[in-house]
């Protein structure tokens, strides 16, 4: 089961209250949603979106006791305008984006996110997507691979790794996670292989971001949600790597400049030591929050 991060902090900044309408744009296994639902009853409503059908099944079960006051939607949050239009929702009191992948996804070896267990390269959060990591790794051009490893992975040996991937797939397609990890290992220098971070970490992150189009989706989701927040409505975003955090930070800065949002977190909020000790996956989490300007006129 996925352990939700920064739960107290999410509640502190989202301030869910009875009768409010909250959008959980990445409901996952429903951990944050459960805490939100406890606070918006009576009279509240929660809409939970996720692009992973398996996560939604778990959330549905977990939130059963709140049945009738939440709805789970299998979709991508980049489509939140269409989703809300279908539900005839025009205004929202608060929204949470808890980005990235869940433990459910990374711990299920068969989904091909992890280089530690052998599985077919996949990495799709939404198993309905046409292109998986297998297609991407075996069809992207050298330049595309090189650029993605550099930009999305911050991988120092991007050229060497991209070249090794292209050379290997000319012989045979690269099918497995561990096979790709071995190619990366062989393409990088000795000192790098011995460092604390596995040499495959950055390449796997980069491919995952590309396959799931994570950065473009985040920009779309953030752009769209501002049209739905009530004045005084709150938006909380948790990101897990610097590329996401940069997008959130820039977007909030622009919106504050336009007088649409007021910033609630001058610096990103990070988990306390105790939380990181209990849940190491929380260590890279950064929370930023804004509130829709009450003096804004529509
Ligand atoms: C960190 S988990 C959320 C965990 C959840 N807050 C909880 O407490 O259980 C992130 C979730 O976001 C989903 N996700 C990521 N990008 C998405 C997108 N663009 N649209 C919809 N869901 C997305 C993933 O499938 C994953 O289930």
Write a brief caption for the model.
With 298 residues, the protein is of the alpha/beta class.
Summarize the structure in words.
- With 298 residues, this protein is α/β, with parallel strands linked by helices.
- It has two domains: 177 residues, Rossmann fold; 102 residues, Orthogonal Bundle (DNA polymerase, domain 1), CATH 1.10.150.
- It is built from 14 helices and seven strands.
- It has a seven-stranded mixed β-sheet, with helices on both faces.
- Strand 1, helix 2 and strand 2 form a beta-alpha-beta unit.
- Helix 7 packs across helix 11.
- The mean pLDDT is 96.
Unreliable residue runs: none
Strand order of the largest sheet: 3-2-1-4-5-7-6
State the helical fraction.
Answer: 40-55%
Number of spatially distinct domains: 2
| Distinct ligands | S-adenosylmethionine
Shape: globular
Q: How much of the residues is beta strand, in percent?
A: 5-15%
Q: Describe the biggest sheet?
A: 7 strands, mixed
CATH third-tier fold name of the largest domain: Rossmann fold
Topology (SSEs and partners):
Layout lengths: L6 H8 L6 E4 L6 H10 L4 E6 L2 H10 L7 E5 L5 H7 L5 E7 L4 H5 L25 H7 L2 H10 L6 H14 L5 H11 L2 H4 L7 H12 L1 H12 L3 E11 L2 H16 L3 E3 L9 H6 L7 E7 L6
Parallel strand pairs: 1-2, 1-4, 2-3, 4-5
Antiparallel strand pairs: 5-7, 6-7
Helix pairs in contact: 7-8, 7-11, 8-9, 12-13
Bound molecules: S-adenosylmethionine.
Task: Name the descriptors.
single chain, 298 residues, DNA polymerase, domain 1, seven-stranded mixed beta sheet, binds S-adenosylmethionine
């Amino acid at each position: 089961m996925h352990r939700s991060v920064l739960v107290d902090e999410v509640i502190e900044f989202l301030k869910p209250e009875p009768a409010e309408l909250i959008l959980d744009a990445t409901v996952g296994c429903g951990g944050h949603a459960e805490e939100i639902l406890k606070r918006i009853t009576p009279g509240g409503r929660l809409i939970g979106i996720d692009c992973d059908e398996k996560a939604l099944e778990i959330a549905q079960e977990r939130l059963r006791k709140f049945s009738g006051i939440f709805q789970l939607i299998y979709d991508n949050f980049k489509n939140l305008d269409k989703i809300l239009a279908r539900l005839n929702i025009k205004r929202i009191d608060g929204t949470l984006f808890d980005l990235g992948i869940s433990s459910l996804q990374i711990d299920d070896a068969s989904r091909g996110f992890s280089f530690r267990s052998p599985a077919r390269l996949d990495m799709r959060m939404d198993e309905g997507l046409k292109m998986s990591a297998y297609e991407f790794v075996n069809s992207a051009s050298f330049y595309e691979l090189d650029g993605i490893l550099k930009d999305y992975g911050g991988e120092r040996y991007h050229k060497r790794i991209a070249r090794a991937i292209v050379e290997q797939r000319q012989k045979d397609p690269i099918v497995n996670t561990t096979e790709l990890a071995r190619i990366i290992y062989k393409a990088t220098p000795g000192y790098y292989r011995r460092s604390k971070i596995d040499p495959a970490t950055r390449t796997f992150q980069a491919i995952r971001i590309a396959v799931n189009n994570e950065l473009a989706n985040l920009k779309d989701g953030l752009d769209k949600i501002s049209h739905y927040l009530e004045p005084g409505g709150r938006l909380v975003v948790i990101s897990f790597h610097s590329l996401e955090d940069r997008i959130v930070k820039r977007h909030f800065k622009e919106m504050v400049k336009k007088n649409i949002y007021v910033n609630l977190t001058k610096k990103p909020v990070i988990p306390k030591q105790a939380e990181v000790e209990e849940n190491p996956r929380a260590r890279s989490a950064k929370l930023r929050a804004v509130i829709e300007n009450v003096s804004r006129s529509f």
